[in-house]
Amino acid sequence: MQNPETAEFVCGLEGTDVTLDPPSEPPLHLPHQTWVIEKKLSERSQPMTQQDVTDGLGLPFAAAKFLCHLKETPSKKAFMRIYLQIPVTGTQYESRQIRREQAAKPQLHVELAALKALKKFVCDVVPDLLAYQEGKQGEDSIVPGGYITYVIWDKVPGEPLNAEEFWEQDPQSRQAIRDKFREVFPKLKKCGYLPRMSTMSKIIYDKATGDMYALSVIE
Fold first, then answer.
1. Which of 51, 72, 182, 194 is 20 to 30 Å from the Cα of 212, by its Cα?
2. Residue 167: other Cβ atoms inside 10 A
3. CATH C-level class of 16-154
């Protein structure tokens, strides 16, 4: 039996159309859009036992990240995260009825909550929230009737900062990056968010324009 921490639950979606119709939540009015999944980038899971669930520690889920594009404008690239409720540890191969009994309504995920809040604040130092939708899994899914949540955010220009590459740059370039970060950090703080992980790879920097974006509030 597969280790629940390494098992892949969100598979075979390359080339799939995903049509999202986000609910209207003033001041957010995101449009009805269809996105095409291009490539799976990563997946992680949070397995839980029945005792964990009973103790109120949350629900087991998998979260997979994909590169995608807008169907009507293929040049418009974005990232998609799919959150999928998964069976309690030890019940993955039980009957559909047993797995259906575990079905729950959509759970709060920090990533979506942060992106929605930062979009309301018109925060320009994080990737823009483009679409989202909370729904139910189909009868043939791993938890029939369980929750599934889609989150799509903009693929901003630039590359993640790398410590080795940073120190290889000349002093003037390094100082420019530091100065830009000193601009970005207060904007996040003003919106009530601080970076969750203090690693350089969670910062996207565009050398051509000098623009910088923080990923650590959503990833």
1. 72
2. 8
3. alpha beta
